[in-house]
Design brief:
This protein is 69% helix and 2% strand. A two-stranded antiparallel ribbon has the order 1-2. A hairpin with a 2-residue loop joins strand 1 and strand 2. Helix 2 crosses helix 6, helix 8 runs antiparallel to helix 9 and helix 11 packs antiparallel against helix 14. The termini are far apart.
Length: 401
């Protein structure tokens, strides 16, 4: 694609995105607006040019930055996936090279908050997306983001919670590229110090009544999940990561099942026809067959569902040791039993938080079992194939010589 074509696709994308966001974003999208998209695009190009990136790389950054928030036109949470779809449809309609499309989509994925950038371009767009942290308009942007979360996520914060949450984010954030640190580092430090002061000034002391007196106490550092937005966010992120890893484990197990099934059903019968005339093939075939069978056993164990009772007694619910959010604990219960038990769980914050922790723990426990069996499966397959080749070589040498 020549430079004229590059300029054409970028100009077409800019017109398309501008029209799309103007039409479908609401007045409540105060932070993730068209202006935000252009700010991120400009920041990405500025960083890219300061790093002396090639024109093709700047083009990829330009397109990814333009499309990275288009998913907000359809959804707020999980908008990155919709942004990918919108970008892919547009670029395919304009006959953009498939390899370049994939690179643009990977850059859009990099803007997901929990994603760690894996390439230089991903680092650039990640820094550009958060360039507002080093902007003089940071606190105006923060007001807009607070408004959006209240409207679209139903997450309302008082001043203490809001400044505390954002200061924690600020403390954990670092720009990935030297160019971003140079451009935004100073103002970022200024904003962080101001945010720290706001957090301290809005901290409320706890008041403990002792008879007729009131004793002020510093705010407790230990909190509950229900009152900590950061804890809720971490649990949601951890749960999503666990589910993604579980799907990945199932896919890996299915690959091993398919490969070994093909070997047993197609390769082995074909090879068996040569055994009578070539007896040296008998031992290698036996080795390969044993390898495939053992691999399939452990791949099956990795995907086999756990045993579920389907019923949780009222005593267990009352004791706070149940997790009625998992279907395996209630699918045999009647609806009145389930409703009564669920009301008992959600009415007590301690029981509810216990259910959340229990859900994450057992999901992780199951995930650990899956990956342990997968490791055994792949290890057996790897060494089994090596052994098959070695045995074949030895058998052939003995038979021939």
């Amino acid at each position: 694609m020549n430079k004229m074509a590059e300029k054409t696709i970028v100009a077409a994308a800019e017109r398309y995105v501008a029209a799309l966001l103007k039409e479908k974003l609401t007045d409540d999208h105060r932070y993730h607006s068209l202006q935000h998209t252009f700010r991120v695009r400009d920041a990405a190009l500025r960083l890219g040019r300061s790093m002396e990136l090639a024109d093709e790389e700047l083009e990829l950054l330009d397109l990814a930055a333009l499309f990275h928030d288009t998913g907000f036109t359809e959804t707020y949470e999980g908008h990155e996936a919709i942004s990918r779809q919108i970008a892919q449809a547009f670029l395919e309609d304009h006959d953009y090279p498939p390899k370049k499309i994939e690179k643009v989509l990977l850059l859009i994925d990099a803007t997901y908050p929990a994603k760690h950038p894996a390439s230089k371009l991903e680092q650039v767009i990640k820094d550009a997306d958060l360039s507002n942290l080093g902007s003089e308009t940071y606190f105006d942007n923060l007001k807009d983001l607070r408004y959006e979360w209240a409207v679209f996520l139903n997450q309302s914060y008082d001043d203490e919670e809001w400044f505390k949450l954002n200061f924690k984010f600020f403390k954990e954030h670092e720009y990935y590229t030297p160019a971003a640190r140079e451009l935004y580092g100073f103002q970022s430090d200024v904003n962080r110090q101001k945010l720290k002061a706001l957090r301290k000034s809005h901290a409320k002391p706890e008041v403990i009544k002792t008879g007729a007196k009131k004793v002020e106490k510093e705010p407790s550092k230990s909190g509950h999940i229900s009152s900590s937005k950061s804890a809720q966010m971490m649990f949601k992120t951890a749960l999503r990561n666990h589910l993604d890893l579980s799907n990945l484990a199932d896919n890996k197990a299915n690959i091993m099942l398919s490969v070994n099934a093909l070997i047993i059903t197609i390769v082995m019968p074909l090879a068996a026809s040569y055994v009578k005339s070539n007896l040296y093939l008998l031992v290698p075939m036996g080795t390969l067959l044993a390898t495939c069978l053992l691999s399939m056993i452990f791949a099956t164990l990795a995907t086999r569902p756990i045993k579920m009772m389907g019923y949780t007694s009222r005593e267990v619910i009352d004791s706070g040791r149940s997790n009625l959010f998992f279907f395996g604990n209630f699918y045999k219960m009647t609806f009145p039993e389930y409703q009564e038990g669920m009301q008992q769980v959600v009415s007590d914050d301690q029981n509810l938080e216990g259910s959340i922790m229990r859900d994450l723990y057992y999901l992780g426990h199951s995930l650990g079992r899956k990956y342990n069996q997968l490791r055994i499966c792949y290890t057996i397959f790897m060494y089994g194939v090596i052994a098959t080749v070695a045995v074949f070589g030895v058998s052939y040498a003995i038979f021939v010589f």
